[in-house]
Amino acid sequence: MKKNIILLFVLLLFFQCKLKSTPEIVKTGLIADSAMVVSARQEASSIGISILKKGGNAFDAMIATDLALVVAYPFAGNIGGGGFTVYRTNDGKIGSFDYREKAPLAATKDMYLDENGDVIPNKSILGAMAIGVPGTVAGLFMIHKKFGTLPFSELIQPAIDLAKKGVIVTKRQEKGMNKYRKFFKEANQRIIFLDKYWKEGDTIKYLKLAKTFERIRDNGRDEFYKGRTADILVNYVQKLGGIITKEDLEKYEAKERNPIVFNYKNTRIISMPPPSSGGICIAQILKSIEPFKIGQYRHNSVKYIQLITEAERRVYADRAYFLGDPDFNDIPINILSSAAYNNKRMQDFSWSQATNSSDVSHGNIEIIESNQTTHYSIIDQFGNAISVTNTLNGAFGSKVFVEEGGFFLNNEMDDLSAKSGEPNMFGLTGTKVNSIEPEKRMLSSMTPTIVEQNGKLKMVLGSPGGSTIITSVLQNILNVIEYDMGMQESVSQTRFHHQWMPDEIKFESNFDTISFTELRKMGYKINQSDSKILGKVDAILVLPDGRLEGGADPRGDDKAVGF
Ligand code: DON
């Protein structure tokens, strides 16, 4: 009897521990009949939906959501950074907008190296030298001009009102602000987040930002690139020793680009082209694994992890060598994303032994010479779909906060390759294609993506997370297409990541579908301590009956709102 009680006690303890490490996965997300916005904050999703309810379309809602995120999610939402948008209209037209930051005109190849040719730590990450010329405002106005139906002034007003009313601090935000306090202090900035130790439940008002937004509302795009805000920005950055000039801002242009489009089984995937690596890398990984019929392996099993890891290893080696700004380089997009090329790359893969990354280089392609983020997804009541990923790069970007303007500036220069083969803050390396040149757009991993099945809209998704964006998006495509998961169920699954170098598989801290022994025996290096979470996917799935299911990633305060 006593023995049985002890056994019961041990079993209870075991299950309690198990429950703690594996939080119950919420299977179904918000279901809505006709429209939905899923973003990093409830305030921004609700503002997007309010625009749709007014009769605006997904593009109007996108602009309002984006500007609301600058207020509600200053960690990454921005006007001092850049981003990418992929869209599919209700009549099936597709396209993308590139408002990625650019290197300033005064940037030079060796600007982050010391006299010995070594990379100066943090110079491309912290402070005024890390800032790329911001693109967000140009992007929003370009999107508005092409597709907007409501006046810009109506789309920016909710963000102005929100900034004046203030945003309630969440538990996660409290933690985030405290974590970065020392960096703000080091940069010697008078910044809202240093006014006091903000706690969960406090309300922060962003009055200077509201004023900047009012000037943009009244004076349009040029306010940011040529007007008073441009002066405020340039003077501040130069005072801190930065090199951005008025000419840099005046010359900045957003661009429309042809998306990367490819088929995977019976789906058609539409994603971001260079200067993002996202679309090409997703295409390459899916083409590499397609012949293996991955659906036959249990989700997150050893074989599943092994196959994806080996594909990722080879694709990230190509990324480092072939990808960069398409305005500076010829990029062999068609070959890289072809089945033939990727199948050949997978020929030396073995189920019994890990490949060594040091034995893997880029593929052989003859080139004709001539080189902290947030994602949101929107589907409107008309059937238009938009996938948007925006970034300041690191959390709060360069930590440079334009005091008078009330906004942060990016540290996107770190996405250029400071020195061939030297890793950046995401451990990614680059070569000549992504080296520093004036006006060059830095290579990105942002992967705003739209999936069609049988000619119809199926899914809108994307993620933050630096180099892990691509693999987070990939795993969610597979969750839905191969494992028939719902959207919330899919975004809630634990994730893993391999990027060629460093040669290790990163697992989220609560990844527990396998023990790692078998992988270790085959020579895989396991890293489960560096990243508590990988990516933060906000997505929408079109259900077979036409209704929408939101997937708001439980790793953040993300929220789906719909009607
Ligand atoms: O464009 C890129 O790939 C990076 N600047 C993204 C940074 C990022 O996702 C950070 N967020 N967690």
| Coarse morphology | globular
The count of β-strands is 21
Average predicted local confidence, pLDDT? 93
Radius of gyration: 23 Å
List the helices and strands and how they pair.
Elements: H1 2-21, E1 31-32, E2 36-39, H2 42-53, H3 58-72, E3 82-88, E4 94-99, H4 136-147, H5 152-165, E5 167-168, H6 171-186, E6 203-204, H7 207-219, H8 222-225, H9 228-239, H10 246-251, E7 255-257, E8 260-264, E9 267-271, H11 278-289, H12 302-322, H13 333-336, H14 339-345, E10 374-379, E11 385-391, E12 400-402, E13 407-409, E14 449-453, E15 456-461, H15 468-481, H16 487-492, E16 496-497, E17 505-507, H17 517-521, E18 526-527, E19 538-542, E20 548-552, E21 559-562
Helix pairs in contact: 2-3, 3-4, 3-5, 5-7, 11-12, 11-14, 11-15
Brief overview:
The protein has 563 residues and is of the alpha+beta class.
Explain what the structure shows.
With 563 residues, the chain is of the alpha+beta class. The chain is built from 17 helices and 21 strands. A 7-stranded antiparallel β-sheet has the order 1-20-19-15-14-9-8. β8 and β9 (267-271) form a beta hairpin. The longest helix is centred in the middle third of the chain and has 21 residues, at 302-322. The model is unreliable at 5-22 (pLDDT under 50). It binds 6-diazenyl-5-OXO-L-norleucine. 6-diazenyl-5-OXO-L-norleucine (DON) binds at residues 372-373, 391, 393, 412, 415, 444-446, 464-466, 469.
